[in-house]
Amino acid sequence: MLTHPTQTAFLSSVDLHTHCAYQFMMSEAIAIVCAPKCEETGYFTLTEHGLNFISRCRESGFHPHPNEKSLYTHAQHCKFESTADVKVIDLRAK
């Protein structure tokens, strides 16, 4: 899960690189981006082009990527169910 406290829900270059590793291990992996200021949550997956492109990109940190072809898209294979009983537990050391 990624958070953009002051921006909209999208995948930044850092997000793309982080998610790429997960999606290579598990093709159904999704990137969830919370944008609290915009009251928006996005569920994304890399396109085939995006997966191939990002896996070959050697830049680090925030950097531009070309946008002539979409690198990611909304994850169509997941649904948000507002009535589901979900419990979020923070397992970090206190």
Automatic annotation (TrEMBL):
It comes from the Eukaryota. One of its GO terms (biological process) is protein K63-linked deubiquitination. One of its GO terms (cellular component) is membrane. One of its GO terms (molecular function) is K63-linked deubiquitinase activity. Coiled coil: none annotated. PANTHER family: AMSH-LIKE PROTEASE, FI19924P1. This is MPN domain-containing protein.
